[in-house]
Amino acid sequence: MLGRKDRRNSAEAVAAILAEGMRSDVNTPLFYTAGAGLTDLAAALQAEPRLAQRMTLVWIGGAEHPGGALPPPGATSGEYNFTIDPAAAQFVFGQSDIPIWQVPRDAYRQMLVSFAELRALAQSGPLGAWLVGNVERMRGALAERGMNLGRPMPWETAPGHAHRAAIGI
Predict the structure, then answer these.
(1) What is the number of helices (H) and of strands (E) in the chain?
(2) What is the CA radius of gyration of the chain?
(3) In whole angstroms, what is the distance from residue 61 CA to residue 108 CA?
(4) Beta-carbon neighbour count of residue 45 at 10 Å?
(5) What is the pTM of this model?
(6) Structure confidence by residue, pLDDT tens digits, 100-131
């Protein structure tokens, strides 16, 4: 049994992974991008091991590679995305044959986005609005707990700045 406690949507997620991964009507490569726990992917791979030959896992997680960047101040020894469900991660990495492209912490920490860029993204269409809405909800939830997910810089709140950011000025 995999170790994640919140399993309310897991059966649906596993079914969706299997359905997409085992499709025979397309020839395009399938990339499963995971920026959290690997519970559902591990369950899908356990249910259908051939799935591993039909997709590539792009795993947003893992500590810095030796000799590369230093970990951030206060970093724990366990990488967060791995510790969400260690049993699932151990299965995916140690017992499945799925190809894995790793994006370690030092790489994903470089993905900084300004609030002006987020505001422009929100105006780009329904997907952009949905993504930015989720970031804003997370930001609000963290603020309620006394945590700061960043703050706008003074020039980002100036009138017209979002337009300048959208056109690259």
Answers:
(1) 8, 3
(2) 19
(3) 8
(4) 26
(5) 0.67
(6) 998 888 887 777 788 788 889 999 999 999 98
